[in-house]
Amino acid sequence: FNQLEAAATELCPEILLIRKIAIENGALAALVSGSGPTVVAVTDSYKAARKIADALSKIAPFVMISAPLLN
């Protein structure tokens, strides 16, 4: 649980929309990282991550996919 998430979403309500879009497009979880405005979405596949990134790129200025160093 991120105690700063409520404050971040109050200042930047778009965070809620980004989290919603991530979940609707297959994220297993979506959360605010640090004090915001970074949102991290967790998936179980590259295909799911690509779908989320494609959906978010329509509204978000910067979308990135990363992968774990160890599988």
What does this structure look like?
With 71 residues, the chain is of the alpha+beta class. 41% of the residues lie in helices and 11% in strands. Strands 1-2 form a two-stranded antiparallel ribbon.
Keyword list:
single chain, 3 helices, two-stranded antiparallel ribbon, alpha+beta, 71 residues
Shape from CA axes? globular
The multimeric state of the shown protein is single chain
Main beta sheet: 2 strands, antiparallel
Alpha carbon gap, first and last residue: 25 Å
Q: Determine the fraction of residues in helical runs and give it as a percent range.
A: 40-55%
Number of strands: 2
Structural class: alpha+beta
In percent, how much strand structure appears in the residues?
Answer: 5-15%
Count of alpha/pi helices: 3
* Spatial sequence of strands, sheet with the most strands: 1-2
Low-confidence stretches: none
What does the average pLDDT come to? 88
Reading the helices and strands in chain order gives HHEEH
Radius of gyration: 12 Å
